[in-house]
Protein 1
Amino acid sequence: KQEVTQIPAALSVPEGENLVLNCSFTDSAIYNLQWFRQDPGKGLTSLLLIQSSQREQTSGRLNASLDKSSGRSTLYIAASQPGDSATYLCAVTGGSYIPTFGRGTSLIVHP
Amino acid sequence: DAGVTQSPTHLIKTRGQQVTLRCSPKSGHDTVSWYQQALGQGPQFIFQYYEEEERQRGNFPDRFSGHQFPNYSSELNVNALLLGDSALYLCASSPMGGGENEQFFGPGTRLTVL
């Protein structure tokens, strides 16, 4: 059974810092890994999707990497802003095509 | 292009009642998945519909059932509601049968069971 862990569970940083959020998974036989953002009480917004054959994806200030062999992905946020405050979730999809989510990292960026 | 839409936004029910939640997928998407998200947790997969059939199911009891219509929209039904069913219910759509394709989520329905 796939298990997904996100570290840290919570993070509070001043504006302008570069951040690294971590996602680890136990079964490396995956099709893809997707990073989401969730504002309080809201739905999930897709940030980046990395297919199993890819090593990284970039969108604006966000960069996500994938290392299947070690069961890890990182989400890098450059020059953080207060508007980046949200919970960040990673989801891993394996052979069953059922995504498994981590519990998320709650990020607060203060001015 | 409308994204994934869900209705209602909020719902309050009492124990033992039944509830129906609705989802319209993003234009061009044919696969709909439903998730339950308890406070402070990641979403838990309930089931997925494709071509009007339930294709995959997570670890949820038979009280949770669904339907997909020919226009790809979907309903989630929950019978005999329990206090523990209180959660944010999320719908996600994906193209071309889902699988390893990117998922797009709706805003969710907040269900409170009293």
Protein 2
Amino acid sequence: EVQLVESGGGLVQPGGSLKLSCAASGFTLSGSAMHWVRQASGKGLEWVGRSRSKANSYATAYAASVKGRFTISRDDSKNTAYLQMNSLKTEDTAVYYCTRRSSDDSSGYYYVWGQGTLVTVSS
Amino acid sequence: QSVLTQPPSVSGAPGQRVTISCTGNSSNIGAGYDVHWYHRFPGTAPKLLIYDNTNRPSGVPDRFSGSKSGTSASLAITGLQAEDEADYYCQSYDSSLSGSVFGGGTKLTVL
């Protein structure tokens, strides 16, 4: 079964760091574009960033709201993707989803989603 | 403020037809980028409903259909059922932002 399982969420103080994991099963992560999407309580979905497939050198891009603070990486040996979040702000509080995208190009859609992991930034 | 604009809520009686609009601009939908739709039930992750403007993934009933024209797209649901109550989101790509964009979501209530 194709599946994504996130972990690593929790409570962190403003200015702190957290690293989310996204473990894939049923497919090889390196062949897929992987994106992170978040949803704050009562708000809509917000794209966070992406890592293209190995064929496109795992190229990354980020939303303006997280650029310079968040970093997406992968470990092929563990079939796992990561979202390193630094200098966290209260407005980063949200449920974070990792998603498998249909293609590396701009018109892709998200057809596999993890269950989500809650990140709470609060003092 | 989401880049793509959706009505916050829509409602309909069982058996009726409802539509959900998704309005963008010349940097996203109007630029020709595909629109995709997801639904999300409380406490669960979003799930793909329509992809590439009009296509349904395997298992999605043909009561759900999508369309796109100009800078807008629409999701239509016919033969409304109680189980259709969920939040619905549209998604596309924005060339000026160089990333995916979503609508703010529409809550569907079956009366």
